[in-house]
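Lab notebook, bench 4. Still working through the backlog of constructs that have no structural model yet. Next entry is a single chain of 87 residues. Request: give me the structure tokens for it.
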Amino acid sequence: MPSRTPLTARSDAELVAAAQAGDDDALEALLGRYRRFARARATRYFLVGGDADDVEQEALIGLYEAVRDFRAEHGVGFRAFAEVCIT
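Model written out:
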């Protein structure tokens, strides 16, 4: 049975586990939670021949990959892992 806790109140680890299990709402909640973080990291980079939207898109792809590849058993928090994937 899915958790009855509102998505906004769930921890990153709970949202990641739900997203990895196929819960699209959990994925959207997690991406929404970290979207500004990814954008902030993207502003540090410049892509020759590209524009700011291209770099931001790459950061969001990194965020999505962080959700896909995160493993809580490794003892690293999601935010730290996501930052590595984004940058």
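Notes after review: Residues 24-42 form the longest helix (19 residues). The chain is about 65% helix and 0% strand. Flag for follow-up if needed.
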